[in-house]
Amino acid sequence: MATEGRTYADGTYLVQSFPWGFYHGGAAICSDGKVRTLKRITQTADTFFSVPAAVTVKGKTVGGYVTVECRSGSSVETDDDPAIVRFVAHTYGRNGALLPGVRN
To answer: Does residue 43 contact residue 18 with C-beta atoms inside 8 Å?
Structure first.
């Protein structure tokens, strides 16, 4: 089984294993602007646009999902607006309030 990683802007990346394309690692930008290593990522996406994942913030696990989008939030990558991996914390998650913009 081959492993392949794709690097995105701002130090973010995703790692997949092939031939099935399962995700098993990466790093994503969180709402506080920090790039964090994914603590957990599911093998398969729950939708075409997001993959359940978790990061560690202040020693605690924060659940959410990762998505690939441009810095501006657009879905069309350009030279001025490159694609990044973004982590979005679940608003209903136990530790989601550890990241700005998430209220429990």
So the answer is: no
